[in-house]
Each structure stands twice: as C-alpha cells, then as structure tokens.
Amino acid sequence: MASQDITPVGADSAKVSLLNDPRIRGYIYQAVVLAVIFGVGYWVVNNTIANLQRAHLASGFGFLDGRSGFDISSHPFTNYSSDSTYITALYVGFLNTLLVAVAGIITATFLGFIIGVGRLSHNWLIRKLCTVYVEVFRNIPPLLVIFFWYSGVLAILPQARQSIALPFSTYLNNRGFFFPVPVFGEGAWLAGVAFVVALIGTFFVRRWAYKRQMATGQQFPVLWTAAALIIGLPLLAFGLKGFPLTFDRPVLGAFNLSGGSLVGPEFMSLYLALSFYTASFIAEIVRSGIRGVGRGQSEAAHALGLRAGTTTRLVVVPQAMRIIIPPLSSQYLNLTKNSSLAVAVGYPDLFAVGGTILNQTGRSIEVVAIFIIVYLSLSVATSLFMNWFNAKMALVER
Amino acid sequence: MKNLVLKSVLGASALVLLATAAASAGTLDDVKKKGFVQCGVNTGLAGFAAPNDKGEWSGFDVDYCRAVAAAVFGDATKVKFTPLSAKDRLPALQSGEIDVLIRNTTWTLSRDTQGFDFPGVNYYDGQGFMINSKKLSGINSALQLSGASVCVQAGTTTELNLADYFKANKMQYNPVVFEKLEEVNAAYDAGRCDVYTTDQSGLYAIRLTLSAPDDHVVLPEIISKEPLGPVVRQGDSQWADVVRWTHFALLTAEELGITKANVEELTKSDSPEIKRVLGQEANTKLGTDLGLTNDWVVNIVKAVGNYGELFESNVGAGSKLKIARGINAQWSKGGLQYAMPIR
Lengths: 398, 343
Prior knowledge:
heterodimer; A: alpha+beta; MetI-like fold; B: alpha/beta; D-Maltodextrin-Binding Protein, domain 2; 2 domains; 6-stranded mixed beta sheet; 14 helices; 38% helix; globular
C-alpha cells in the first residue's frame, strides 16, 4: 500500500534514504500496524451492525426502562420489586457483585496474610497445616469450591423447623443464617455523633503522640486510647439516652423463620469459596514478599536493639509490602471476575440478573456490552486504586 | 445518535458477535446442504427431551425434531440435538447455532416480535406449583403459599408469572433462581425451597426424578397459559412453513386415522382426503411447493407416528408420566389441537 513512498536510492549516497533511517522506519511500521488495527476494528463493527440490522436485532438501550417483571431474592440497599425497571434490576445485580467481591477481598486478604505468615512459622504443625491449606485450595477449580460449600456444607444443614439455634437469637438452617436486626429508637443519633467525634479524636491523639515521640522519644499507648475512645464514647452517649435500642428477632413462621435478617446460602457459599480460594494465592504472595526481604535487614534491626515485634512491624513488613502489592492487585481482579461464577448456585449477581434480562428481552448484544463495560470498569477501578496504594508504599528516594 | 452510542459499545463486543453473521435466510437450503437438522432441545425433561437408558435422545419434543428431519430428508435420523438451558435457548437460535428450537418454549408477543416466529403450538400447558405434602401437610392450595421459598428456573415466562401471581394475591415469597433445570431439581429435592413452580407437564415429569416422588403433590391452581411450541428465526417464512406444516401433518394424520403401522397400506387408499394428504393425488404439488417431496407426510408418520401416538408414548398413558390428553385433544374431541387443512 505504501509502494509509492519507495524512492530509489540515488547516486547521491552521502544522504541516507529516509527509508533506511531506523527511526523513520519505526514510525512507518507503527502507523501501518495502527491503521490495520483500526481498519479491522471498523470492519468488524460495521459488519456486525449490518448483520444485526438484517436480523432485526440491534435497537439500542431503550429497553432498559421497561418493567422487569421478575423478582430477585437478595436486593440489599435497594427497594427492588417486580415493578422496577430493567436498569434497576441490573443495578441490584451490580450491587450484589460488588458486595460479594468486597467482602471476599477483605476476608481473603486477612486469611491470606495469616496463612502466608503461618507458612513461615517456626511451629512445625502450623507450618504444615498452612502448607496443606494452600496446596488444597489453590489446586481446585473455584467452581468446585463453590459447589463444595453449597452442596457439601450448607445444603446438608437442617430444615427450617429444626434450625440450629445459636447465641444472640441467631439461627442456622438450609435457608441461610438468620440474625436479629437492631432497631434504633429515638435519640440513637447521639451515638453516631459520638462515634464520629471519637474517630476525629483518635486522629489528633495519634498525631500528637507521633510528634511527642519524635521530640522526646517517649511512647504513648495510642492503640488502647483509640479503642477506648471509639468503643467507650458511643456507648456513653447511648447510655445517656437510656439505650434506645430494640431487636427485630427471627421467629419461626409457617414456612420459614421470619423477621430479622438473613444471609442466604447462595451468598455464603460464593463468599466463602472465593475467600478460601483466593486466600491460598494471597498466602503464597505474602510468603514470597516476606522471604524477599533480606535477612540482613532484620539482623540490622536486631543489632540496633529493636525487639522482634517492632522489627517485623517497622522493618520487614513495609519492605515486604512493596513486593506483595502488585501481584495482590491481580488476585483482587481475579476474585472480582470469578464472582460471575455466582450463576452456578443461583446468587443474583450482575451476570445472573443480566442473563435473565437477556432472555426476557432477547437483547443479547446490549446486555453483553453492559457486562463487558461493568466488569472492565470494576477491574480498572481496582487497578487504579492498587496502583495508587503501590505508589504510596513505594520506596521514597530522597 | 442512539446508533452512534451503540456503535462505540459494539466495538468492544463485536468479536462475540461474529457468529451472528452466519444466521441468514434460506434455512431450508442450508439444512439440505449440510444434510441434517440441528435441533435445540431441553437439557433433560423426562417425557419431552431426555437421553434414555440407551443414551439416545427421546421424548415428545425430540420426536418433533425427528418429524422435521423426516419431512426434509425422508429420514428421521438426520437430526442432531443441542441441549439448551432456558437462558441459552433463544440466543442459540438467533446466532444460527440451531435451525429450530423445540424446547417447551412459551409463545409470547414479546418473543414473537424480537426476531422469532412460532409456527404452532405442540403442547398447551399451564403453570402450576408442586410442594412436599409430607412436610407441608396443611397446604392444599397455592393461595396458602405466602412466605414460601420458591424454586424457579431463570429466564422463563414462569419466573414472570410467579412474580405476577404473588403480587396479585398480595403474598410474599422468596425466589430461589437457578439457570439449569437440574440445579433447580437438586435444590428443591434438597429442601432449599418449599415450592417448585414450572409448567404442569414439567412438574409431573420432574416429580418422577425426585428421591421420593410420592411425597410430592401438584397443587390444583393453574396460574397461566403456556402455549409451548417450536420456534424459528423471523424472516424465513419458507422454513417456518416446513415446521408449521410438519406439526399440522402430525395432527391431520391422527384425525384421519393414519398411524405408523398403517401408513404404508393407506397410500393405496381410495379416500380422496387421505390420498391428497399422503401425496398420492395425480400431479400433486403440495409437497414440492413446500420445498419438500410429495410423500413428506408418509415420511413423517412412518418415522414417528401421528400426534396422538407421539403424545401417548412420550407423556400420555403409555409413559411413566401418565398425563391426560386434556386440552391437547383434537378439536373434534373437545381439545384445542386443530390442524389447518392440507390441500
């Protein structure tokens, strides 16, 4: 295509042809590749649209305003009913995806750190147990782990009438975990205010303590003070108002326990499976991170007179974090994307709800496009956050 | 403007859709060229579409697929089956993965206008409820189900009727939704929900597969009309005609008393009607106008029998399901099955 551009190398050989200039040549190659990519992309899009129109398929996103007509079992934070629109249904699915992803990420991180550190323990039993955990969960497909929890553990819990009664009016049966919901009476707002005040107070105490240590070398028990503030202050405020709190407890109805709130086995199995599965990878990342910090670092810290705990907190972990964070981001992305396996146990995540909408409306293109955009944005948002966190933890060179 | 938004979005999802290009008009020619009918069926619903103990697909809907193959090729074995979940069935037809969908699919206006055509109704059904009568002994009506957990398959009209019924009767319920029929069955059998809802024919079929079939009863209420039938892509009336008239041929054969056993013999019949239907009239063009051969009805009936035979052997008295003909009887016997005249 660019044949006209080729100019024969003339007798004037002192001047090198533009074509033989590696820089220019590089530009030309890149331009050609870019043009080909755009060309193919344009052809694919055009061809698709033409075919869709011929099959009477594509007609935009207008259908999202229609009445959904179906119910969704779990719709936290929203007032969803069968009268809501398709877009609301998708939003409910999105929230459910987000809920299980965030809860899974938090649990997997805690579990992964504990097990990763456990694998480095001096205690033989702990070390071996953690190794077995990692090897078992990392070598099983996540779908199987989900089924293990759903069919193997949660489905064999007793029926509603034989619910296992647990402390604090909570119950466990094959319909899920039922727990009482606190109903705040009049004046409960004061406790909320007290909580915020305690948080702000903690922030200032911490700053003051740091400054004082820098100036005088004296330490201040920040942790205990913070705990006392954050727990004590709201409790005090609550007491002043005479504890305006009642509980909506679950009671046995005709079919099931009613009242209170419940976490269904679908959410539980997905959440547990994703956490346990991802934790095994995180454990390995943590182990490699800690191993990656040179032995000399802790030896130097010991030589300076730091105790073992302080050495870990101030010397080893900050350096290990720099190794841990980048692969950790990938695990978070994996967990979020794996949450679409929810469809196997009937948890109404974005993928499951979107699939139902796809079936009811026949708008496969639009729904798949929404899937792609949402999962892509979720992943990009997680990546951006983790990059920011990584930059914050990175070695600051002065 | 809308188109522009769509265009930019499609850039991302276009690759998924390349398969769509394969779908085109002229399905009959395509089918003849490749030598078999690709038929979408249920993943496993006893009596309608399920692999039998020899590993062959069998059932009412499966036999309809065979009838279409017999009409096109004169050979009922020239058919391949694609088991599809409720959610995947319509996209599979849209994308051209299958030629015809015969998978107890309800004929609705929205489906009819979204790129599909329903050539006929091969089974008139209605949605019902099944409960475990041993566990819930006091319940004998669907109106007592407030507060129950209900197992239902995702992406079905059943799911929508369920929401409407409970709303109209001001009852609460908790939907437990699965994509695959097997998953719904397993969840109901394990006691994850109190109630199973789907088409009544399906409930009877599923009851047989539960661990203790006798503990379960189907409640009397029918809450919806579920006309189930084959589905083809819109915009290909020739192929729709082949499927439609295969259905009518099965019904007509029953009306005229043409069975699998006597069809060969009846080709020599003197009755002008039977002669016409079986393509024995002189210079007949009925079959060729349809794009088939003139003995297409003979081929269908010889391969699978007539509508009544299909019904009895798969879901009726001759099967484990023992479903009564009911509204699926011939119009002349008080039912709704009515074939347009073959002439």
